[in-house]
């Protein structure tokens, strides 16, 4: 019988080791898996986290292992490329940091075994991802196992798959279930015994025969999303003369779905709006080396907010998390890290990563779409090689899986008429109107325009969001990084997106703040702060509760602005979120009135004098916060960028003229300003392919819609992480020149 031995404990580890050692080095550090070497430097800013080859070494005694005919080393995540050496013999190489891969170590097995795994997250031109807005944490960051099996066993060699594939289809009140297994070294006299079990572990179907079996489940209990995520299971036993040689199992759900260009997502024949979040897997000071309890906490938070869908971006997630999605009824978008910058040498890697994603995760009922790419058209959408790569991936998905659809996440400025947009079955866009450009009102209008021109193409919103840290204001403005602007932004987006049922799915970017070591934004470098929850999972921002008010059935009330206590105005606006029909707000026990809000957002004008205790009551739910009247604005609430040469409040301004604090769109709208900026970019932008890190001067016209909302100083601060460096003196000189240019009239 199969035995799985976990090898997570006590690996000797060292950085910068290009070749395996001949023995376990006594002076190396010892670590337990999961492990990443970028848990700290991948989140502290500067874009300088260690990317190179590191080595993990461990001794394994055969006497400590079960007796078996074959031994397979299983690596569930080595980012981003890995090499296995067993007793000095090179056995395997794998490119792709987010999937499971295995190698047969039987022939190299001795009584005493030195296992060495070299892991490399160095930049290269053929393994995705290479350019993206997140940290590529290096390491053996998921489990490493030794699988011990008989000579004849369920397949362990085919793209890291489980050796069993279950395909249920709905047929009236019943479900037809086709089971296919794959066996290595099968003998003629060997048979496979199949059993279908319900959730109570009762056998409801059994068959013994060859490599496939067909069952019919009468009056099937449907897997019905968050409402009722009912799971069956299938076990397959490899038999020889009545003896069980090997066993595999898979849970599965019976459900039907469709994506309709007018009605949105349809689950089991009923409209089932997909309103949810995207998820990055990393955590503060842990990176991507997560334990099961971390995954469970993430799922609990996503369920609390009321989401019905998760986009697992931008790579294959841990199999444990897909299991949680099945169990909790999430509808999942799964994708590969074909992202941002198309690499002509990376086609084979996209094919192998997509193959592994599908083969390894085929049995999960939660998954409904395979994502081909994300924002891959940063340098244009009509590149012939890029288009061919997408057609190959699209065809591959349909060949490997005839039950699911394909999709992609398009860059905001990608033309809706481009060939690329219409390759997959359905499409979604990443839009940040109201944060990176334009204003919030543009979002709904954009979707109406797309839907009017392509009424038969399902369209979704794959990313939208804005950054918020512990900065606060009573006058929120685009780009200020305050929690109040993030709350306002999401209120506006909820109203626009959730009332258009033709939008097949919406995914907030992001559920959690996440590491991006190159980022220099918001005053806390090294992170993207668009999350509804902080990277340590300890604080739910106000916007979290805006979604909970719309999506969750759990009664609650939440007063916004709990971290914004000191306020200067005599009357201050206080927002309350609740999914209850009415909210009453009390100030020091005195009622300020009862309000109704069909959109779940309740606004109160609150007298601000001395110290005030606010209490919100909605049904049986209560929440409390405090206010304090101050004469001067509390400067600890004001955004100050760290690590920058110059901040916005250090910049001189001339009335009616431009400055570094002007919006990029306003500067570019003037001839003098445009010439000044184009000259600066041509001088400062690094030369060579990809040197600009996605800021393509030849594509500047198409980028204007996105960039126009940035202040010039904010944009220059961001570009400093892409090797566009300016000194304080250069910035002040540029500001002086801008002060002489009249600002465009509004």
In whole angstroms, the N-to-C terminal distance is 76 Å
Mean pLDDT: 94
Structural class by helix and strand composition: alpha+beta
CATH architecture of the largest domain: Alpha-Beta Barrel
Query: Which shape, going by the Cα principal axes?
Result: globular
The Cα radius of gyration reads: 28 Å
Could you name the ranges where pLDDT drops below 50 across 5 or more consecutive residues?
A: 688-699
What's the name of the CATH homologous superfamily of the largest domain? Glycosidases
Query: How many domains is the backbone divided into?
Result: 5
Strand content: 25-35%
Q: What share of residues is helical? A: 10-25%
**CATH first level of the largest domain: which class?**
Alpha Beta
Largest sheet: 8 strands, parallel, barrel
Quote the CATH topology of the largest domain: TIM Barrel
What are the SSEs and their pairings?
Elements: E1 3-6, E2 11-15, E3 29-31, E4 53-61, E5 70-75, E6 78-79, E7 81-86, E8 89-95, E9 101-104, E10 112-120, E11 139-140, E12 144-149, E13 153-154, E14 164-171, E15 174-181, E16 183-184, E17 191-197, E18 203-209, E19 212-217, E20 223-224, E21 228-229, E22 232-240, E23 243-252, E24 257-260, E25 264-267, E26 270-271, E27 275-279, H1 292-305, E28 309-312, H2 319-328, E29 331-335, H3 347-361, E30 367-374, H4 384-400, E31 405-410, E32 427-430, H5 442-453, E33 459-463, H6 483-497, E34 503-508, E35 514-515, E36 527-528, H7 542-551, E37 557-559, E38 566-567, E39 571-578, E40 582-587, E41 590-596, E42 601-607, E43 611-618, E44 621-629, H8 664-668, H9 671-684, H10 700-707, H11 712-719, H12 728-738
